[in-house]
Amino acid sequence: MPTFLQTVKVAKSIALLSAAWTLLCAGLIVGRQAISWISTGVWDKYPLASVIKMLKAEPPAIYVTASSEEGLKPAPTIIHAIADWLLDIPVVFPLLLAAALLAVFHRWLGTVENDMARK
């Protein structure tokens, strides 16, 4: 059975590898954007909403009766505005945030490892 110190060492390694993999993914996305920018002259920002759309399967067919659209759409609220703003964030930012949090976690595990080694 592994000791607590061994578990911390494994978690520390996994956190470091996860941060590196996340940075690699972010780098690939930025590289793809740069290649697109060089070839077309337009910077594609790849918002988070486009990634979520790619994850979804084909939407089911929705059948509605013919009527005015004014009564069907709910009035936009502050929640809708915040959700739209969050979905418009470029996907690189959440990846960089995740990598930073993983790096902080790795560092914290290092201090735990050092404290355990001293005891």
Task: Find the structural class using helix and strand composition.
Answer: mainly alpha
Overall geometric form = elongated
Distance between the termini: 20 Å
Per DSSP, what share of the residues sits in E-state strands of 2 or more residues? under 5%
Low-confidence segments, given as residue ranges, are: none
In percent, how helical is the residue content? Answer: 55-70%
**Most strands sheet:** none
Secondary structure tally, helices: 4
Order of helices and strands: HHHH
Compute the gyration radius: what is it?
Answer: 22 Å
Number of strands: 0
Q: What is the overall pLDDT average?
A: 87
Structure description:
- This protein has 119 residues and is mostly helical.
- It has a domain of 70 residues.
- The chain is built from four helices and no strands.
- Helix 1 runs antiparallel to helix 4.
Task: Lay out the secondary structure.
Blueprint: H1 4-40, H2 48-55, H3 78-87, H4 92-118
Helix pairs in contact: 1-4
